Amino acid sequence: MQTRSKSLSELLSLYLVTDLSPAGAGSALATVRAALDGGVTIVQLREKNAQLRQTLEEGRALRALCREYGVPFLVNDRADLALLLEADGVHVGQDDLPGLAARELLGPAAIVGVSAGTMEEAEWAVAQGADYLGVGPVYATMTKGDAGEPIGTSLISQIRARWPQLPLVGIGGIQSGNASAVVSAGADGVAVVSAITKQSDPQNAARELRRNVDAARNAR
Ligand code: TZP
Ligand code: MG
């Protein structure tokens, strides 16, 4: 667990959610490194298709890379894996271990993020002590088959109005062209998979996203 000098709001500016298995771990790590060079501010290991022993191995390599860049490293869904990987935190969905239980496992310093797609889910996440919410899918996504219909940016605005200080990140179908709309609606940053990992030049893709997010943050 690393100590943090930046606020969580800042750390959420450009959130890379990894999709390691299709490319193979080696080239996926190169993609993450390029993305970090381009300005990614936080990384989440999200591995839906691999055996856990493979995820554990990939996770160790990803953690080392994130430490090298001084960027927080989170694990999707599984607090047990986050604990084993000495991650900086976990991101849980509504069907995973509740936020409070995840924190019980990981300790008070861990970053615990929770997904929300409705106001009710946001209420639950906040009651579960979430450090930040991941709100979406904002736009249509090809990455998550069960993501459901896109919800647009209005929920982000509603959550921002209800909890002015709560760190928030939008997720789902976000690219450099629509990232600023997500931040203008009230998010602290954007979480992306394909807008970085599926690009031929992930470093440049990350740089462009980061530029747009920073500009929108500074305009608030
Ligand atoms: N949760 C909601 S949408 C989504 C997740 C993990 C997938 C986002 O992927 P992309 O490629 O950025 O649309
Ligand atoms: Mg999940």
From TrEMBL:
HAMAP family referenced in this protein's UniProt entry, alphabetically: TMP_synthase
Organism: Paenibacillus validus
Xref: NCBIfam families: thiE
Protein name in UniProt: Thiamine-phosphate synthase
Region span, Disordered: 201-220
Positions bound to 2-[(2R,5Z)-2-carboxy-4-methylthiazol-5(2H)-ylidene]ethyl phosphate: T141, M142, T143, G173, V193, S194
Pathway the protein takes part in: Cofactor biosynthesis; thiamine diphosphate biosynthesis; thiamine phosphate from 4-amino-2-methyl-5-diphosphomethylpyrimidine and 4-methyl-5-(2-phosphoethyl)-thiazole: step 1/1
Family designation: Belongs to the thiamine-phosphate synthase family.
Binding site for 4-amino-2-methyl-5-(diphosphooxymethyl)pyrimidine: Q44, L45, R46, E47, K48, N76, S115, K144
